[in-house]
Design brief:
3 helices; single chain; 89 residues; two-stranded parallel sheet
């Protein structure tokens, strides 16, 4: 329900931080569940490496981009900012 409040929510693969993965819980499962329940703005995009390209495809002037995750997501924040600074919309 919380993810559905965003205009667009891009889900990368879940990477466990210090805990064991929860069997059966994946980003694909979350995206399918949302879609099955009528939420169309949550998209599974695969590995984290896909995130910068995917963000650039959907972001528009005036949008806010928020990344949330446990650790590795911070690797792409600088890339997103750099690409957006040079983007032509």
């Amino acid at each position: 329900e919380a993810l559905a409040e965003a205009d667009i929510c891009l889900l990368t693969d879940i990477y466990p931080a210090r805990e064991e993965p929860i069997e059966g819980v994946t980003s694909e499962m979350i995206s399918r569940y949302a879609s099955t329940n009528g939420v169309e703005n949550i998209w599974y995009i695969g590995p984290l490496e896909n995130a910068v390209e995917q963000v650039l495809q959907v972001v528009r002037p005036g949008d806010m981009v928020i990344t949330i995750g446990a650790g590795s997501i911070t690797r792409i924040n600088g890339q997103i900012v750099k690409e957006l600074e040079h983007a032509s919309f």
